């Protein structure tokens, strides 16, 4: 079983939950899955979708310009 999968971020249906590095590497990894799961938990706990003020058509540009700082 492969640990990564190459994708085109523009063709993914759930861009709001996309880890920022997927935009540059075009790879889905275990780490990007954990990131997406964390955003899902955020949505469940707050009852708000990620980046709720950003329109769907602008979400990839927003993620690219506003990367998250991950804890080290």
UniProtKB/TrEMBL annotation:
InterPro entries with a match to the protein in the record: Kinase-like_dom_sf, Ser-Thr/Tyr_kinase_cat_dom
Record domain Serine-threonine/tyrosine-protein kinase catalytic: where: 10-66
Report the superkingdom from the record: Eukaryota
The molecular function terms of the Gene Ontology recorded here are: protein kinase activity
Q: What is this protein called?
A: Serine-threonine/tyrosine-protein kinase catalytic domain-containing protein
Query: Which source organism does the UniProt entry give?
Result: Wuchereria bancrofti
């Amino acid at each position: 079983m492969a640990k990564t999968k190459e994708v085109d971020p523009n063709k993914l249906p759930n861009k709001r939950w996309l880890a920022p590095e997927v935009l540059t590497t075009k790879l889905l990894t275990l780490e990007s899955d954990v990131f997406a799961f964390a955003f899902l938990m955020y949505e469940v706990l707050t009852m708000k979708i990620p980046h709720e003020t950003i329109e769907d058509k602008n979400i990839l540009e927003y993620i690219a310009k506003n990367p998250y700082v991950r804890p080290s």
